[in-house]
Amino acid sequence: MMNSQPNTKTAMWKSLRSLAGLTAILLTGCAVGTNYERPATSTPSAFANGPGILHTNVQVDPAWWRTFNDPLIERLITQASTNNFDVQRAQARLREARALWTEARFDFAPTARAETAYEKSQLSKDVAGTRSRHGELFRGGFDATWELDLWGAVRRNVEAASATVESVEATHDDVLVTVQAEVAVNYVDLRGTQSRLAVATRNATNQAQTLALAIALLNGGQGTQ
Known about the structure:
The chain is mainly α. The chain is built from 5 helices and 2 strands. The radius of gyration is 39 Å and the shape is elongated.
């Protein structure tokens, strides 16, 4: 007569696993809150007070300053983009947001813990007797826990962290573009001032030559006071 108890236990465990899997699938749709969707930003097709050629949907070259063909402005913008403290702080906040997003995703995986211990002992001669007086003991252990995200808390945390990363990325890009634009504006102002200074210098030279000519004519008796 064959014993059917092992087969009964196997069937029972299969049923329990199937029930657990079905329960997890059913509770997946019970996540708290709605799924995150990136909000749409409405922008006008053109600027209200600008000429018709200024459209908001035109793609701008990220390295637009290279159109000047000026190595100096390229070097200045590169230095500002690398060494500016505001840009560095924005980059640090972006790295932090990305790290927190990665940490939030770790909650999907099991949490593992490992413990090790080492002991070394020495007994007195009276206690040890014929045994060895020296002893060593090494212990190791491993433990892992995993909590199912039945109500969607982990997913919502990951979505929130992802949204934070997008926000910080936008702020970082805004700071970077602002710094680059400030460098370009100041550089153009400098070039304009240098050009006006050169024109003023030439005018002063011409006026000095005109004055010298008038004095020479006056001294030669061909001019008036």
